[in-house]
Amino acid sequence: MFNLIEAVIATNSNLILYDYSLSQSQLDLF
To answer: pLDDT tens digit string along 1-30?
Structure first.
């Protein structure tokens, strides 16, 4: 159960970081 929660938190953190880096890349392009 705890492993599942940790996995979800880790995935969400990675998605947020990925989304942020993606936004930064788009800003750099313009």
So the answer is: 678 889 888 898 888 888 888 787 777 765
Six-digit token string for 18: 């990925």
Residues 27 and 21: their CA atoms lie apart, in Å, by 10
pTM of the model: 0.48
What's the rounded Cα separation, in Å, for the pair 7 and 26? 28
Render 1-30 in DSSP notation, one character per residue.
-HHHHHHHHHHHHHHHHHHHHHHHHHHHH-
